[in-house]
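In response to the reviewer comment on reproducibility (Comment 2.3), we provide here a single inverse folding case reported in full, input and output, so that an independent group could reproduce the run without further information from us. The structure tokens appear first.
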């Protein structure tokens, strides 16, 4: 449950930050974190799953119970999520809603039922905050037409991972 909570918070935070409504200024930061960072209170070193270790017995990222602590926004903020389906790929958001994680951060998630290709113009004009979609033709067409859209990938496989479907 704690992992799903963290995933939900991170997913929404990244999605909100990745919208075209953000600032175009470059602060000079690469945005990458150092492996020597001190981490978040209550999480520290145990909150990192080493990406190089894919063994079944590896330690999985965990925070202490009650961490990370909520950091609620000053005002309730509504975040719109465009998706045609409430399927497994939306489960981290649904789980976060069910367990009150977004409410604790003063965030209200509003689902907008709309196909991704129909939502691109509204995402580009900032009438909607972010959309859940795959790497489908609509996304590539938007990019080819200079729509300022960003993609966040929830799956990560390091280059040396190889084919994980076989032993």
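Designed residues, in position order:
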């Amino acid at each position: 449950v704690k992992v799903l909570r963290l995933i939900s918070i991170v997913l929404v935070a990244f999605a909100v930050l990745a919208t075209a409504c953000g600032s175009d200024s470059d602060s000079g930061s690469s945005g990458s974190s150092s492996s020597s960072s001190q981490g978040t209170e209550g999480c520290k070193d145990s909150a990192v799953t080493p990406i190089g270790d894919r063994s079944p017995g590896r330690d999985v990222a965990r925070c202490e119970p009650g961490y990370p602590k909520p950091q609620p926004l000053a005002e309730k903020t509504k975040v719109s999520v465009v998706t045609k389906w409430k399927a497994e790929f939306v489960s981290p958001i649904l789980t976060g809603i069910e367990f009150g994680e977004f409410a604790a951060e003063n965030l209200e998630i509003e689902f907008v039922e709309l196909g991704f290709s129909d939502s691109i113009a509204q995402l580009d004009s900032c009438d909607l905050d972010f959309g859940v979609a795959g790497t489908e033709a609509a996304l590539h067409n938007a990019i080819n037409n200079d729509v300022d859209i960003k993609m966040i990938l929830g799956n990560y496989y390091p280059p040396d991972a190889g084919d994980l479907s076989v032993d």
